[in-house]
Every structure is written in structure tokens, then in C-alpha cells.
Amino acid sequence: MQFGVCYYPEHWPEARWAEDARRMRALGLSIVRIAEFAWSRIEPQEGRFAWEWLDRAVATLSAAGLKIVLGTPTAAPPAWLSRGYPDTLPVDEQGRRRNFGSRRHYCPNHPAYRRFSRRIVSLMAAHFAAHPAVVGWQIDNEFGGGGTARCYCEHCADAFRRWLQARYGTLEALNQAWGTVFWSQEYSAWEQIGPPILTGSAANPSHTLDYYRFASDSWVDYQQMQLEALGPHRRADQFATHNGMGLFFTALDYFRLAAALDFASLDNYPTAGPDRIRGELYGDETPLAVYAPDVGDPAITGFELDLARGWKDAPFWIMEQQPGHVNWGWYNPGVPPETVRLWTWQAAAAGAEAVVFFRWRAALFAQEQYHAGLLKHDASPDVGFRALERMAGERQQLERLASGPVQAQAALLFDYEDLWALQLQPHRRGFSYLRLAFTWYRAFQRLGIPVDIRPYDAELSRYRLVLAPSLHLGHAGLAARLEAYVQGGGALLAGVRSGFKTPSNLVTEQPLPGEYTGLFGVHVQAWQALPPGVALRLEGDLPLAQAEASLWAESLAAQAPGVEFPLRYASGAFEAQGALSVRPLGKGSCSYLGWHPSFGQAVELLGWLAERAGVARLAELPPGLIAQRRAGQTVLLNFSADPLSAVVSGAAVEVEPRGVRLLGED
Ligand code: GAL
Ligand code: ZN
């Protein structure tokens, strides 16, 4: 378990560097990330490179014993580039060109921008790769941040047409795949196709879904270009990674982006990111009120951490860890050292191998003046610094925890394309794939059941329970793989709107749930979006405390022998029809859940499923306490400002406010 910090030597007088480096080491930091926004200092004029200052920074930091992660500086092109080549600036969904004066102001498909990027990355690699202190590379910084994930410029339009040609081959196939006969949208030449924005009325959802895929692929491709530019110089022992963002950012398919990286990284900001997404994730439900005001929401942070582990099914880095208060949330509460320690332990328990704090010292100038660093503006220690001092005595325990894998018997399947498709056609306000997946995640966390978050092509046989919030778009071969999983003894539950669409976002011609009918042995006979205040009563052998379906409901009928309905609708249009099915199949069983569960229902349903599937709970937890399991140890984390007790193997275990307890090893 390594600790590190993000440092901006270009923000401070050179005379300070050695003292900063010494204090970093004294604090137990071994890693320093630099240079990811330093393009204007590295290439002050087009084609004129200035490496000396960065050489001296690397020399000073490494002389103090720090290992260096070099960021490629492409997230922030300098003014000569943006002004000299103004069409490298990206175009947003409103058709407006973004301006110079911040960061992320570039189009990943612009040929000249790609040339400039390739050149600086390859020169940087040639210059620094041999340095023994350089341990790895961070490619760019947070692709898509600041609302720049999807560019709609003319270069993207070109690249999109090429992407479509590769995907569909012929215009006939494309017209078919998008259903363009509707509203006379048929294309008779590739040049007629543009980005799906500023249309007279709603754009075609097949067109838009493909644009979302294309935009995500554009980053994968742009990253690949940088990996290749690093390639000939990068030492075999130097890693390449990219720092991804939390749940508020889902425009990029991080499973695909991470595939080419040595490991994934996450930027972890528990009190800020959730502000942007809490409304969508909770809808009309309220977050648990027991959390301390400064800890963020452990369900959101937990989902982000478990998802980051799932991007590659491997340990990951926290490349930026919130060190205290930040500047970009709604309220940016002050944070005590205990909270920074709690987040660090939460990350370690979820599979982090390194935690790199953002940033060393609070900035005196520009956009992030109100963001804490480990040091205050005046260079005295701030709360993150205090937290690291406290953790100095815990390094061995953290090391021990990080020495093995996270152990989960259950998987939550997660798919960015299903998320996008349902975002485009939610049909009911408040219907969100992300919310549905998060509702299940919260239930896992509430019950103390560790869970992996995995894509559809994951190997499932190691799990006892697999939960698919919605298998919405068709997915070649998935039904057969899920069936093999169930036949082999697995328990599977899939949720509403499964099998509804083809891969190109047309509705299936088959009865619902389309290609999954054979697996679940049920037909969805009808579906309804339920407005607020309208609910259908539920009854059956599986009593629920809150026995009504709201938000979205589908009525189920058996289509194969052996299908049972532990819950049926007991009022409204679906009265007497199935609401939850169970079908024993081979050595396992599969279930289709016909409504969008509330959090309370998800907890009850998951408890029932987990017990049948033999999935262990780590502990009985009161709200506010969470549990994780790594390297044979159970970690209990208390996110409230009061002491809380869990019951573990029949015995009560108390955890102090904002505290951490480590239990046993097997
Ligand atoms: C991250 C970003 C950093 C810094 C930080 C502030 O999203 O990568 O450069 O802006 O937020 O919290
Ligand atoms: Zn573009």
C-alpha cells in the first residue's frame, strides 16, 4: 500500500521544491504525480521544448527518495495551440465551440491535435523514460471532465461516419439498423450523416446511442494513440494508467478504456461528486440520515470504488484522493482528519493499491483556490496531513490488507450502453439505469455482502449470485452464457426492461423479454410506467414490508414448466399476474423481477436471494456502518458521528465514530 501526492512544481518557486520533497518523504509518501497540466511550460511555443525545469523537478523529487508518476500534459493545451488551430477547440451539444481559458478544451478526433499530442508524449517519453525514479505514466487527465466527453465538431462528424462505415458496412444496413424510414430520415450518401444534435425535434435514439458509443470509443482510441507514442520508450517496468471519475460521469465506457491500461485509477472525491448525482441516484427516496456531515455518502463512494475495481477486475489506484474540503461540491463541508483516514481505509478495503492525495499544497491562484491540499496556503499542515501522520502507525495493517484480493461471492452486472439507451428513452421521469443499479448496490452494502461490479463479458462462474439490474439492449451470446452460469449452479436475477431492444436500439420483434424468454421461462405480457402516487399491491409467499410496486411494473406469465411466482400483483391492471418469478434450472435458478424495487424492497429481496444462494453476510450492520472483505480480513467502517456496533458471528463489535475496525484473518 503506497501513499503519494499530486504536486505542481510549476506553481511554486524552485527554491521550495527540495523542502516540499523532504516533507513529503517525512510524511511517509513515496509517490509524487506531476506535469499533467504543464504543457505551456514544456512547449512554450510551437515546436520549442523546455525540459530543463522539469528535469530539475524530477531530480529534486527523486533525490528525496520519491517515485514519480508523469502525467502526459494533453488535458490542457497551451494558448498558441488553441488559438493557432482554433478548430481543435471542441464543440458542445448546443453546437457552440468551447473557448480557451480552462482545461479539456480539445477535440480527440482532430488530426492536428492528435499530431501535437503524439509529438509531446513521445518526446516526453524519450526524455524521461530512462530515469530510474519514473515508475509510470498517467495518460492525460480525466477524459471527458467538465462536460467535454462528447464533441460535435466537423472532425468528429468525419470520424463518426468512418466509425459507422466500419460498423455497418453499407448504408442499407445503417438505415435498417436505425429505422430511418421513420420521419423520412433515410440516408442515401454517407456525407448526409451528421452528429445527432440541434435537430428539429427529438433525434433518433439509435443514431444518438451510436454517437455515444462513438464518442466513448474516440477516447479509447485517443488513449491508444498516446500509449503507442509512449510505447517505444516506456520501460517494461513503467505502468500506464488513466484517472477515471466517479458516478456522476458515465459518458465513457471505462471497461473498454481500462482494457489497454496496466491498471485503472479513480479520482475519489466523496463530498463533491455525489452532489451532482444524488438526485438521480435517490429519486424520491431519502439518503440514510445517519452519516456524519463531512463523510460524503458511503454508498456512492462504495459503488465508485467497487466499480473501479471492476473496470479491470483487479486492484486499482486512487490517483487523486480528497485531502480535506474541496471547491466544486455544493457545500464543500470542512473535513476532520478522521474522515480522510476513513476514506483511505475504505479505498484500501475495496481494492486500492495506492492512494495519491490531491494536492500537496493549496493553490494561491486560479480556479482551485478554495481546494484544500495536504498543506494549507501558508504551507502549514492541514487535515489530510494530520490524517497521514495518524496513519503512519497503521502502515503495516494497511499493507497486510492490501496484500490480497477483495473477496466477493456476488456480482452486479453493469453496462454503460444499457445506461445510455435508458437515459435516451427513460419513458418515465425518474427512471434511471444508474438509479436501479445503485438501489441494488445499496442493498448489498446495507446487508454486508461484498459485491463485484462487472461487465457482461465477465467470467461469472466464481459467483454464487449474479444480479443484472436490466439486460436492456440485445447482447450477442449473453443469454447463452447466463444460462450456462445458471445451469452450473448459479443464482441469477434480472430486472425490468430486459430483452426489450436490439443492439442498435430498435424494439425486439419477439415477445418480451425477447432473447431472455428461454432463460427465465416467462413472458412479460404488459408493462406500465407508474406516475408518483400510483402503486400496485403485491402479495405472495415472500412477504415484503412495503408490499407494493411503484415506478415501473411488468406483468409476468409462465412460459415454461417449473416457473413459480413468489409475488403477484394484487391490484390494478396486472391483478393476479406474476411480479417476481423463480425458475429452477439445472443446478441453479433464475428470477425475473417485474418492477423497479425501492431500496427497502431491494434489501429484502436481496436478503432472500442471498440466503437461497448461500451467499454469506459479513456482519449485521446498523445504518451508517459498512463492511468489506479483503485478504482474509473483514473491515468495518463507521460513517456516522456516533459509535456503532455490528454483529459479527454472533458477537457485538463496536466501531468508534468515523472509525475503522479490522477483524480476524482466516
Ligand atoms: C479532479 C482533477 C484535478 C483537480 C481536482 C479537484 O477532477 O483531476 O485536476 O481539478 O479534481 O478536486
Ligand atoms: Zn470533435
> Could you tell me the strand content as a percent range?
15-25%
Average pLDDT number: 97
* Oligomeric state: single chain
What's the tally of helices?
Answer: 19
Helix content: 25-40%
Can you characterise this structure?
The chain is of the alpha/beta class. Among the domains are: 410-613, Rossmann fold; 625-663, no CATH class. The chain has 19 helices and 25 strands. The strands form five sheets. Strands 5-4-3-2-1-9-8-7-6 form a nine-stranded parallel β-sheet, covered by helices on one side. It has a nine-stranded mixed β-sheet with strand order 11-10-12-13-20-19-18-15-16, sandwiched between helices. A three-stranded antiparallel β-sheet has the order 21-22-25, with helices on one face. The radius of gyration is 26 Å and the shape is globular. The chain starts with a strand and ends with a strand. The mean pLDDT is 97. The chain binds beta-D-galactopyranose and zinc ion (ZN). The site of beta-D-galactopyranose has 11 residues, from loops. Zinc ion is lined by residues 90, 107, 109, 151, 153, 155-156.
